[in-house]
Amino acid sequence: MNSLDDSRYLALIDRAERWIAKVLGLVLLVVMLVAAAQLVWQVGWAIANPATPWLSDKLTRVLGDLLNILIAVEVLQNITSYLRRHVVQIELVLITAMTAVARKVIVLPPGAESKPQLLAGLGVAVLALAAAYWLVRAVNRRRMPARTRPARSFQDRDL
Question: What are phi and psi of 149, to 5 degrees?
Fold first, then answer.
């Protein structure tokens, strides 16, 4: 009887996780659509104005906004991957983190070179993420056959 209660409890947790992931995915999708529309509007307006100083910080702001939307797309891919396979794909998480650090480096304000701790921290983050990604890729390549079907649910009976 105890294993039956555990099974029901785990099934409830599994359903709750999936429901929360779906809600978060929908919220993120709406935010992404609004952000993309807003960015297109702002860039279109700036292009229509010939006095827009693209070689100043305007280009950096647009790149930062584009990368923010790209990071949101990668987070949405993390959510949908979780819903499809019920596992967190660490490679995708690491790529998202690398994109976020790259965005931070790209949008550094003028004068950031006078902040050696910030630059050193970003450098360490880049190296750590790159090393982690390399290690995960190396381990995944060593595994024999790639898994082509979703992971078994905890509810599946052992064969």
Answer: -125, 165
And the tokens for 71? Answer: 């990071």
DSSP secondary structure letter of residue 146: P
The first and second tokens of residue 144, run together, are 């024999």
| Residue 67 tokens, joined | 């990368």
Q: Which sequence spans correspond to the domains of the chain?
A: 2-142
Nearest alpha carbon to residue 41 among 33, 50, 30, 53 = 33
Q: Calculate the alpha carbon distances from 140 to 91, 129, 135, 137 in Å.
A: 10, 16, 9, 5
Phi, psi angles (nearest 5°) of residue 158: -65, 140
Cα–Cα distance measured from residue 76 to residue 92, given in angstroms and rounded to the nearest whole number: 11
| Crossing angle for the helix pair 2-48 and 59-85, to the nearest 10 degrees | 160
List, for residues 45-84, the tens digit of each pLDDT value: 988 988 888 777 888 889 999 999 999 999 998 888 888 8
Phi and psi at residue 52, to the nearest 5°: -65, 125
Look at residues 90, 43, 40, 36 and name the one whose alpha carbon lies nearest to residue 68: 36
Model confidence pLDDT, tens digit, residues 11-32 = 899 899 889 989 999 999 999 9
